[in-house]
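Per-record layout

source: Streptomyces sirii
name: Helix-turn-helix domain-containing protein
length: 60
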Amino acid sequence: MTPAVLNVDQVAALLGISRWKVYDLIRSRELASFTVGRCRRISESALDAYISLRTEQEAA
C-alpha cells in the first residue's frame, strides 16, 4: 500500500524514471506538488491524475 503523500524518490521509483525527470514534470506543472518545509511532496491523487492524463494522451 502506498502512502497518501509521496516524496520525489518514491514517485521516480513508481514511474521508473529518474528523480530529475520528476523535478522536470513538477517545474513544467505536469505533476502537481507542494512543499513541507524544504521537502517536495506529491499527493497520490496528483500522481493518479498525471498517469490518467498521459494514458489519455497516448491513446489519442
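summary: Residues 5-59 form one domain. The CA atoms of residues 53 and 59 lie 10 Å apart.
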